[in-house]
Design brief:
alpha/beta; about 20% strand; 7 helices; about 35% helix
């Protein structure tokens, strides 16, 4: 099990984005979480390809790109080309097994790592067929599409289930959790078996950013 932190740019001050990115990097965080929303798969709109192109080379953290879009099979590779180190798409957006396999292969062929995310209402066992082929699973502990929501404790059962499954089969897959993460819920997620904690409002907008990152460890 790893012990990584991924500050989420969704909560950063967009008027000083590069300063916020430097703050995240200086904190020692290993990942920079970049949310993409199309206004269709989820109700809001956030960062896009042009934003990723501008920031992807401005730091040395891992560009952890979560695409909450309707057609990841046609767009995922574009985010890889724009600088994503990991592209995570939603299982609910690609229910076709053939489409999933094609998207995973396309990203891996490009040299990009692949993650699959599930919403709070989707069962963790739906991820099982893909664990041998991907690099990361992202458990949403809030409904995707909006920052600042409260952590759903049902996510802990999913994390525990996946931790047991991954360890039993020795899959090389990281477990990431996103939504309502703070020092308390983060500790619960770690205990359940999470490798990466995504945090936004808990980190950005506070003058003790680095100390908060350390608490999440």
């Amino acid at each position: 099990m790893k012990n990584y932190v991924a500050p989420s740019l969704l909560a950063a001050d967009k008027n000083k984005l590069f300063e916020e990115i430097k703050l995240a990097e200086d904190s020692g965080a290993e990942y920079l979480h970049f949310d993409v929303m199309d206004g269709k798969f989820v109700p809001n709109i956030s960062f896009g390809l042009d934003d990723l192109r501008k920031i992807s080379a401005s730091h040395k953290m891992i560009n952890d790109v979560h695409i909450m879009i309707e057609d990841p099979d046609s767009q995922a590779i574009e985010f890889a080309k724009a600088g994503a180190d990991i592209v995570t798409f939603h299982l609910e957006a690609l229910p076709c097994l053939g489409c999933m396999a094609k998207t995973i292969k396309s990203l891996h062929d490009h040299g990009t790592k692949v993650g699959i995310s599930i919403k709070p209402g989707t069962k963790a066992n739906t991820l099982e067929p893909f664990l041998k082929d991907i690099d990361l699973v992202l458990i949403m502990s809030v409904e995707p599409g909006k920052g600042g929501q409260a952590f759903m404790k049902s996510a802990l059962r999913k994390i525990k289930y996946l931790r047991r499954l991954i360890d039993r089969h020795q899959y090389n897959v990281l477990i990431e959790v996103d939504g309502g993460i703070n020092d308390i819920t983060g500790a619960l997620a770690r205990q359940a078996g999470a490798d990466i904690l995504v945090a936004g409002t808990y980190l950005f907008g506070h003058n003790d950013f680095k100390e908060r990152v350390n608490k999440l460890r």
